[in-house]
Design goal:
The complex is a heterodimer of chains A (about 290) and B (about 240).
Chain A: E1 3-12, E2 15-24, E3 29-33, H1 40-47, E4 55-60, H2 65-75, E5 76-79, H3 91-99, H4 107-116, H5 130-141, E6 148-152, H6 160-174, E7 180-184, H7 188-194, E8 197-202, E9 205-211, H8 212-218, E10 219-224, H9 226-230, E11 237-243, E12 246-252, E13 264-266, H10 270-281
Parallel strand pairs in A: 3-7, 3-8, 5-6, 6-7
Antiparallel strand pairs in A: 1-2, 1-4, 8-9, 10-12, 10-13, 11-12
Helix pairs in contact in A: 4-5
Chain B: H1 2-11, H2 15-19, H3 22-40, H4 46-68, H5 75-79, H6 84-116, H7 121-140, H8 152-159, H9 161-189, H10 194-216, H11 219-227, H12 229-233
Helix pairs in contact in B: 1-6, 3-4, 4-6, 4-7, 4-9, 6-7, 6-11, 7-9, 7-10, 8-9, 9-10
The chains are: A alpha/beta (about 290), B mainly alpha (about 240).
Amino acid sequence: MLLQLKDISKSLGKFRIKDISVELPEGYIMGLIGPNGSGKTSLIHIILGLYKANAGELLIDGMSYEDSEVEIRNLIGTVLLDELFDHSATLKENGINYGAYYKNFSLETLEMYMKRFGLDGDRKFKKLSKGEKLKFQFAFALSYEAKLLILDEPTANFDPSFRKEFFAVLKEYIADGTKSVILSTHLTEDLDKMADYILYIENGSTIFSGDIEKLRDSYRLLTGEKYKINLLPKEQVIHVEEGNYGTRALVNHRLRYNYDKEVTVAVPTLEELMYFITKRDKGDKRR
Amino acid sequence: MTGRVIKDYFTAFRWENFKEKVAHFAYLMVYIFTVLPVVAGFFETWESALIYVLMMIPTIHILNSGSLHIMKMPKMMYMVPLTKDMKKEYIVKSALFRICFCSLLGMICTLPLVFIGICRVITYVVIAYDYITFALILCGMNERYGIEERDAWQEARSDCRGLIQGIDMIITVISLFGIACMLSWDANEGKENVYENLLFIIPAILFQLPLTIKHMKYWNTAVEKALNYERSFDK
């Protein structure tokens, strides 16, 4: 198991990450989703060893930060929204300066990815756009054979053509079955296609953690007449929303449950899931 | 590691960092190079102007260094595979380099005053002492006086470091300005002012030294804090 979080808790002022447990085996992509302020970035900081959890156990490739910090850091590649590199240095200089700390850093690999991502190694870091800075972080993370890539909302800053390239690189990256990716994003459409696991958190608590297929099997999105939707058992309904073309409801799906034939039943996308669950938690349950 | 420390010290002096404090910096420059010398009459003769400029250049450098070099590592250094000892080495070496560079700059800039004959050796020793103290309190473990404007008074209630640093800094600035005044009077009027010298030396020894020692007692705490990303960036 490449990543194991067991009952991780962390207090950050008034905000609290509560008992998050997740496991990610080698060769998979895990999507980390949740609304703004749900604790995604804080959780990533905990996984990166930047924040120390108040309780729980964190193991990366079976090692803990307390015992094997250097080994773990050699295994982790990161793309964060923070500007991590030296502004006044060129990309190549940054690569050489920071790459020197990594056991398996390869300047050739970095240059190969920079070329692939359309980055000029002689440009200064400060001259890059936000998206280019993230591309460079991504190229750097790929240059030292990291086993676990942790990416904090990079896709929103990528143009559509690079987003395709980005996911193609991720597919290549996990292809040999020894590496994994944690991808935090708001653009859940991409995760619908790519992710094998989903960790959905809200207000620091886990809403769902596990296989994406299991997630899809757990919920259904119903569309139909309002009175038909209202006939559903209350405990099954997560949130109901009335629209111009009928009423929609997200429900907990039970295997072999017979929905009314006049109600359209669909597997919700991640975006729809997030939307309805967030609405429910805001107490916006319209019935 | 030493090369990296020196490089990081100088690369911090870039416009992006000054930009965040441009109003503060502009105010400082205008005040130090126009209001203050005019009021105190430093620009009346070339000797007193020279004294003032030579003393204020390192002072401004220390003030800026104190605002730019916080006792913590660049963010990326928390991510790379470094042992705790290596991180500690970086933090401690960075602080020592800041202290040494800023103190030396003060001493080098004011040394010509001794050769010109404006400043006596005893006064120069006090000047050097002032610069060392100033560099120690402001550039050594300056986690309070940083780019991130922190509520120093609020924090001072819990561990009093902010308060000690603030008092020490004010005393040092007054002391440096006092020495500049004293030398300027020397240059303008050629009088022997041993008593005036003592007036500035005694408070310096009496107040600055114990305050600086008290402040430096928090050295290990500050280093431990700088080792911790969470406490350095997200408090």
